[in-house]
Amino acid sequence: MKRVVLDARRLLCPMPVIRVQDRVAGLSPGTELEAVCTDPGVLNDIPAWCRVNGHTVVETRTEGDEYIVVIRVEPTG
Fold first, then answer.
1. How far apart are CA 77 and CA 59, in angstroms?
2. Reported pTM
3. Which of 15, 19, 44, 71 is the most buried (most CB within 10 A)?
4. Where does 3-72 sit in CATH, by number?
């Protein structure tokens, strides 16, 4: 399975979600996107975006001052 890393460090809401949305638009279903962020709000915001848009949250974790959300791109339509 392919995994792509998105660096969204030093971005504040809503920019991490917008960057995730833009990146997901160019990815194939089944691809995992790992968003590395410094805004703790992403632990709620990205999963909420996934629920609305039909993608799957694989993992959320905190590593020091960074917040990582891994999502799986699901087919749309």
1. 24
2. 0.95
3. 71
4. 3.30.110.40
